[in-house]
Amino acid sequence: MPTDLQALESSDAAASGCPAVQTCAVGGSTLRSRSLLSGPGDFGRNASSHDPEKSRRTVLRIVAYGVTVEVRVSHADLLCDVRNCLPPGWQPAPHAHAEHVVSVVRDDADKAAARTQIFVRRRRILDTRCWSEALHCLESHIQLHVAEMAGERIFVHAGVVGWRGKAILLPGRSFAGKSSLVAALLKAGAEYLSDEYAVCDSSGLVHPYPRRLSLREDGGEKLRRPGPEEFGSRTCRGPLPVGLIAMTKYVAGARWCPTRAPSGWAALALIDNMVPIRRQPGRCLHVIHRILAEALCLRGNRGEAEDAAPALLAAAAGHSASRPALPASMDRNDPQPTLTKETTDVSQSAYG
User: Using the 8-state DSSP alphabet, how is residue 229 labeled?
Assistant: First the structure.
């Protein structure tokens, strides 16, 4: 095991009671004033000066959606960038016990091309000299872990925007074109919920997950992280019922000519993109039932996002005008369905 990781782990005993760790974890008023969408987002930024006294090893413990994560950082100067990788709405939890531990070991906080390694416990998941790549890996790993382990919410890989009181859901994994379509919808007047996860409660309502968008540029080589304000939009307060589910992917030169999809198609698309489907199949299927109760389901290939966005908003608006809102009786205390062999087969069919 690398010496740097051993040194980082040796600070564990001091971390639980060390005032310096509590200061780094809580961050005083800095954390309380941190904006989820307007904090420092310039990935790759390093500290302008290196102070050896401030660069002692640091432990940051946080809780998000009921999940506690510990991040060990080899240089305190890196904390600002690391905090920007954490899930929206996270809170400091300096005294909590965290079973999931991630270590960020960087040779030198000031050198742009310094070697960075990321470990989960003692297993190395990344070794790179690109700081922005390390931050992207750290963000993806922590947020996926929280999505998997969250107890009161079901996370779905999907872009989500709000339009006239309803959510438009765009299920799909990374590189499916969700972020570019979300950005185009924001330009067309929609409000922002997320470009990566639809966070659903047991009523099927979608809550905001307002991380910065991830837009790939220059053939995917460069990652830009704008907030919704850059597109003339804002974060939706939510939560919202789902009004439209669009199962679509980008095909060069294609025109957006969707067909109405059976609810079974939409159910399979949601199953395929639900993060905790294997751990909580019963809850996931219950949420799917709630989501599909009033949603219009469309499928079809699309060309450029700017061309498809107005048509999606028009379809969502037309459907909302012809259908009532979700019944008020759909609350999170409703009993969940019993998992049967048939529903188990549905989840297995999507995952093999």
Answer: G
Q: Give the Cα separation of 336 and 286 in Å (integer).
A: 6
Amino acid at 283: R
**How many angstroms separate the Cα of 26 from the Cα of each of 29, 36, 137, 145, 208?**
8, 16, 24, 22, 24
202, HSE (Cβ side, Cα atoms, 13 Å):
16
Beta-bridged to residue 156, according to DSSP, are 198, 274
Question: Of 91, 247, 270, 80, whose CA–CA distance to 170 is shortest?
Answer: 247
- Is the pTM above the cut of 0.85? no
Considering the domain architecture, whether residues 236 and 300 belong to the same structural domain is answered as yes
- End-to-end Cα distance, the chain: 36
Counting every residue, how long is the chain? 352
Task: List the helix and strand counts (H, then E) for the chain.
Answer: 11, 16
Same domain, 81 and 24: yes
Q: What is the CATH number of the domain that holds 316?
A: 3.40.50.300
HEC letters along 69-89: EEEEECCHHHHHHHHCCCCCC
**Residue 171 parent element (H or E):** strand 166-171
Rounded CA-CA distance 204/306 in Å is 28
Using pLDDT thresholds of 50, 70 and 90, give the confidence band for residue 318: confident
In three-state secondary structure terms, 3 is: helix
In this prediction, residue 150 has a pLDDT band, given cuts at 50, 70 and 90, of very high
CA dihedral defined by 38, 39, 44, 45, rounded to 10 degrees? 120
Domain boundary among the residues 114, 132, 149 is at 149
Question: Domain end: 112, 131, 149, which one?
Answer: 149
Number of CB atoms found within 10 A of residue 193's CB: 29
Contacts from 314-317 at CB under 8 Å and sequence distance 24+?
A: 315/244, 315/258, 316/163, 316/164, 316/166, 316/168, 316/243, 316/244, 317/163, 317/164
pLDDT in tens, 15-35: 444 333 333 333 332 333 232
